[in-house]
Each structure stands twice: as structure tokens, then as C-alpha cells.
Amino acid sequence: MRTEILRTTEENLMRAAELIRRGEIVAFPTETVYGLGADALNVTACKKIFAAKGRPSDKPLSLHVASLEMVERVAKISSAAEKLFATFCPGALTIILPKTKIISDFVTGGLSSVGIRFPANDTALALIKLSGCPIAAPSANLSGMSPPTNAQEVFDNLSGRVEVILDGGQCAFGISSTIIDLTSPAPKILRHGAIPAEKILEVIS
């Protein structure tokens, strides 16, 4: 497979969205790191993410969305989640919520929950909207390697494993999103990232 790095023109976004709709994978920028995306509702497509990254199949994939309506399709939103979405999203926060039946257990690594992220990046949002589906997207690197923060780093990791890399320049943060789990009575920070944990917990305390 020949890997191309493409500028984020309207034509190239359309091409990338068509690949997503056809069940292929695409690398794209967010404000944190670059993601390797596939249609989250297409299990066969999501399997290509695991193959390209060499990712263990029991590691869940987070979902990137472009609207709260899209969140409601894939997860059950609590009052705490509503507050966090209103305060931080779009932004560098992944919120773990109970999943709906539309999301396969394969995508979530057998878990009954799913991580949701509403990225604050114009290219990512445009790709999601044009694709018409939530996009499952871990970082666009080989498993065990550092998450990439520009298109060249993605190419160095995944050349020959993905057809298209959308080049959105250098990521604004360069570190991964903060992850909070809202599936148990006490909210829990699972990963410290771009948004300080104390700011997140203040909103729902």
C-alpha cells in the first residue's frame, strides 16, 4: 500500500471521508495528537486499526464525534457528562460512558462502556461530519511508540499501513486527552492529559 500525506483541502477531506465510509482507515490531526480512524459502527473497518498499529485486540477504541446528537447514538449521557460536555467540549477530554447497543463489544474491548471525545480541531470535525459516523481513533502510531504530533511522524510509523494521512500541521497540545470514567458512582481520572484533572473534577463536584 502506498501512503500519501495530503493537505487538508476540501477535495482531500472528501476523499478521506469516502475512504472512511468504504470501511478503510485514515490518519488525521486533532488538537492533542494524530489519530488513526475508522467508522466506529463498522467492525471490519475497526479491525484494520488494530492490524495497522499492531494493537492488542482487548484494548478499547475511543470514539471521536462532531455533535452531542452523535454522542447520544453511541452512549448514555449522565448529568455529570452533560456538564463536562458543556464546559470542555469540543476539547481535549475523553469521557467514558455506558455504551449503547449500536457499538460492538469488539470496538470496546469487551467492555460495556465507551470513551467519547469531541475534538477541537477543524480538520477532525470536518472529517467526522463528512463521514457521517462516529470515528474510532486511537493515536496514529505503532503500539508502544510515542503518539505522533505531526503528519511526518505518522508516516514514519505507518507508511504502507494506511492509504491517507491528512496533514493538519503540528498538534496544538502534543499530549493526549485527559480521560475521566463516569461509569461508577465516583468519577475517576484514568489518564492525565491536556486538561488538568482538578479543573474537570471541579465542574462535577
Give the tags.
single chain, alpha/beta, DHBP synthase, ten-stranded mixed sheet, globular
The CATH class turns out to be: Alpha Beta
Amino-to-carboxy terminus distance: 49 Å
SSE topology string: EHEEHEHHEEHEHEEEH
User: In CATH, what is the homologous superfamily?
Assistant: DHBP synthase
Largest beta sheet: strand ordering: 1-8-2-3-7-4-6-5-9-10
> Structural class of the helix and strand makeup?
alpha/beta
The percent range for helix content is: 25-40%
- Main beta sheet: 10 strands, mixed
Number of strands: 10
Mean pLDDT across residues: 97
The unreliable regions are: none
Q: Tell me the number of structural domains.
A: 1
What's the CATH architecture? Answer: Alpha-Beta Complex
Question: How is this structure best summarized?
Answer:
The chain is α/β, with parallel strands linked by helices and 205 residues long. The protein contains 7 helices and 10 strands.
Describe the structure.
Helix 1 crosses helix 5. The chain is globular and about 50 Å long. A ten-stranded mixed β-sheet has the order 1-8-2-3-7-4-6-5-9-10, with helices on both faces. The protein starts with a strand and ends with a helix. Strand 2 and strand 3 (35-39) form a beta hairpin. The protein has a single domain (4-204), classed as DHBP synthase. The chain is built from seven helices and ten strands. The relative contact order is 0.25. The chain has 205 residues and is an alpha/beta fold.
